[in-house]
């Protein structure tokens, strides 16, 4: 199994968010910033790290491992934090 240093990470910033932070990431060797459609990435990924995002739910429905990142001071109301939703997610049809 590869460690995180040898893995490639792809950052897909939200198209309508304040993405000024991205310029601080330009020297991270194993990080690529991707501005294309998200559907081009879902079939190629092993895991998604997300904050409040509908993409996290879509990835979970596709069987992709999802890890939610809690940003201090930001609201995170992802349905993936709801145990009742998690109990029924396998029965949802996409």
Commentary on this structure:
There is one protein chain. The longest helix is centred in the middle third of the chain and has 8 residues, at 54-61. The protein has helices at 39-42, 54-61, 83-88; strands at residues 9-11, 31-33, 47-50, 65-68. The relative contact order is 0.14. The protein has 94 residues and is an alpha/beta fold. Helices cover 19% and strands 15% of the residues.
Descriptors:
alpha/beta; 15% strand; two-stranded parallel sheet
Largest sheet strand order: 1-2
Q: What would the average pLDDT be, to the nearest integer? A: 81
Q: What fraction, in percent, of the residue positions are helical?
A: 10-25%
β-strand amount: 5-15%
Radius of gyration over C-alpha positions, nearest whole angstrom? 14 Å
Q: The biggest beta sheet, please?
A: 2 strands, parallel
Low-confidence stretches: none
Count, helices: 3
Write a short abstract of this structure.
The protein has 94 residues and is of the alpha/beta class.
Layout: helices, strands, pairs:
Blueprint: E1 9-11, E2 31-33, H1 39-42, E3 47-50, H2 54-61, E4 65-68, H3 83-88
Parallel strand pairs: 1-2, 3-4
């Amino acid at each position: 199994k590869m460690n995180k240093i040898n893995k490639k990470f792809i950052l897909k910033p939200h198209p309508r968010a304040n993405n000024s932070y991205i310029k601080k990431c330009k020297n991270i060797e194993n990080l690529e910033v991707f501005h294309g459609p998200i559907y081009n990435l879902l079939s190629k990924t092993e895991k998604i790290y997300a904050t409040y995002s509908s993409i996290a739910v879509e990835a979970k429905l596709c069987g992709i491992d999802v890890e939610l990142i809690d940003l201090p001071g930001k609201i995170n109301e992802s349905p993936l934090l709801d145990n009742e939703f998690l109990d029924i997610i396998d029965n949802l049809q996409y």
